Amino acid sequence: GQQLNQSPQSMFIQEGEDVSMNCTSSSIFNTWLWYKQDPGEGPVLLIALYKAGELTSNGRLTAQFGITRKDSFLNISASIPSDVGIYFCAGKINTGTASKLTFGTGTRLQVTL
Amino acid sequence: GAVVSQHPSWVICKSGTSVKIECRSLDFQATTMFWYRQFPKQSLMLMATSNEGSKATYEQGVEKDKFLINHASLTLSTLTVTSAHPEDSSFYICSVTRGPYGYTFGSGTRLTVV
Asked: Of B18, B35, B78, B80, which has the most beta carbons under 10 Å away?
């Protein structure tokens, strides 16, 4: 199936640093979602974006829905050890309740003290 | 979002046997649930869309006779991996959609076929 391309694939940063990751697609999406997955767990929603150009924050997290509707980025400020995990973007084409999500390839974040 | 319970969290089975995984929506009547498979260090790949009271819709390349989905009630969908083989070993995750934007995921089931 189709996947969204995320970069970077992995990151090793020091506690306190800011993090930026992005997600690109060859197709247009009408909704962008960012999830975090801890080992052995299901993904947990961080931020949802519904309109092109939208910039949304959730605590130290900020995400934007690209103007072209083909990309999105996620920033994490002042990283802490519990930010460790895999971050996935996900896109949705339609707004219906039965619409499928397409997931990105993931960005693995490691935070060192 | 909805509260989703997935069971079991892990299971080991012998090659050739069948395994059933349950996904329950605890606080929401879900007409649609989704089943994903995730191999180590890879992303989530949608396997099928589970529809209450009707047949599931499978993604291209997913064998419907091997991965049986039953969504007999608004709170329960089950995925049965039939005649499991080692290559079916994976992390299986269900998702419940609540409204046009909310997708809540279960905690996943780690299947190991030996």
From this structure: B35
The torsion angles phi and psi of B88, rounded to 5 degrees, stand at -85, -10
pLDDT at B67: 97
Those residues whose C-beta lies under 8 Å from the C-beta of residue A84, and which sit 6 or more positions away, are A109, A110, A111
Identify whether the C-beta of residue A7 lies closer than 8 Å to the C-beta of residue A107: yes
**The pLDDT of residue A1:** 55
**Cα–Cα distances in Å, from B104 out to A44, B47, B78, B95?**
7, 16, 16, 5
Judging contacts by C-beta atoms under 8 Å, the chain A residues touching residue B60 are 1
Tens digit of pLDDT for each residue in B18-59? 999 999 999 888 889 999 999 999 999 999 999 888 899 999
State how far residue A16 is from chain B, nearest Cα, in angstroms.
Answer: 26
Rg (CA), chain A: 13
A32 with A51: CB under 8 angstroms? Answer: no
The percent helix, strand, coil of chain A (3-state, each to 5) is 5, 55, 45
